[in-house]
Amino acid sequence: MEICVPHGVKVSAIVPAHDEGPTIAGVVAPLLSHPLVDEVIVVDDASSDDTAARAAALGAIVVAMPENGGKAAAMSRGVAHARSRIVFFCDADVVGLDEGMITRIVAPVTSGAYDMFVGIRGRKTYWTNRLLHFTPVLGGERALVKSLWGHVPRSYKKNFQIEIALNFFAKHFGHRMGITVVRGLSQVIKEKKRGLWPGLRQRLSMIADILLVSWRIYVVLRLRLFARRNRRALISHLVSRG
pTM of this prediction? Predict the structure, then answer.
């Protein structure tokens, strides 16, 4: 995919991380060496391991959270510290990240073709996303303009709800979205990282977050917006009739 990127347009890479010492170097290193990345901000979400030390040793900017606030809170902290108008979020537990993958996700936004571009990992994850109906749904690797982040209400910037919230409000406010399948990029599963039961609890918590925000946005919020549009149409009709 050849995309013309305007000279000087770069991104701030934001990596929310909690106890990701074993994988953080494999994420930070290719980001630091990428020509479109201006800075790499690792938001250490109160890790108990050496995640922050490893990231700092490589040359990343490390922002420490005073207590564990979850993925979305770490992302927000990263956006607040980012100096570029475009940000690239990348999970800290991915494996196989390389320059080509970063370019495929970042360049469509730096070129101005899209306001948000999402990388979906591999074939199985891609079809899971399609079956869930939201397009795109779960993709931790995404580039977007900071103004889009600002359009997501604070009440939706919670834990794993943030990705679906970004999808919805991007569409709602007319931002241009794109998606690509990134083959060769994988993720260390939670059960392997945290242990079977802690990892399973975290997975169930993530699923609960996704179901909750899906209900809040695609059912409750849509009904409210529909009712609001109908009220406005009725008022406009009544006014026009005098």
Answer: 0.81
